[in-house]
Amino acid sequence: MACLTFTAILIALFWVSLLLLLQLTTTNATKVSHDGRAITIDGQRRLLISGSIHYPRSTTKMWPDLIKKAKDGGVDAIETYVFWNAHEPFRRQYDFSGNLDLIRFIKTIQDHGLYAVLRIGPYVCAEWNYGGFPLWLHNMRGIDLLRTADTVYMNEMQNFTGMIVDMVKQEKLFASQGGPIILAQVENEYGNVMKPYGDAAKAYVDWFKSWGGSDPMRTAEDLAYAVARFFQLGGTFQNYYMVLYITIMN
Ligand SMILES: *[C@@H]1O[C@H](CO)[C@@H](O)[C@H](O)[C@H]1NC(C)=O
Asked: What is the pLDDT of the chain when averaged over all its residues?
């Protein structure tokens, strides 16, 4: 009887410690969400200033200093693209060495107490050769139109994107795991090419949008309203990236 009670207490203790452990891991996690006005981090609306540092464009030795300078300049987050053709120069042969060490780069951001924004693409534009598409992808048998609902393309794109997400998850670098990555993005400025690609574009977007759960799209009207409010509240400088391009298109 005493023995049984003792076992029961032990089991109870085990559950209590397990619960404590779970609580510890969940308090470590950062909850990132959004409401009608802003991105929220642990329930607080945040105005986030992010600075881009593209890791392959500098050496590993430069990263701490670059990130520190950005932090001293007042940013909350460091944003980077992921460069597919650099990481997978030959199909299923990967390179994450030297200045391609994405995990080390994100950990360096974390060491500096900043958030990270990961734009996986894997089409990234980014003033980078072929926007990050590997040449082997372009030359694949049966591939038709990149960045659309082309099954050959989608298979390769999902494979690389999935691998990056897995790598980052394994290192517990997402905010939900206690890591610094508050936002991750698939594709890049897709609105620009959506119209000419037509139905194949719509099917493609519907496909990858379902990966993350909620719909992250923000309408132009909503954005314009946010900009108007920014000025109303004393904002003084705002930039429409590549506005000339839009003007020409119209
Ligand atoms: C990518 O494809 C390879 C086969 O070519 C497969 O072994 C691997 O699991 C795939 N990775 C992902 C993340 O889908």
From this structure: 85
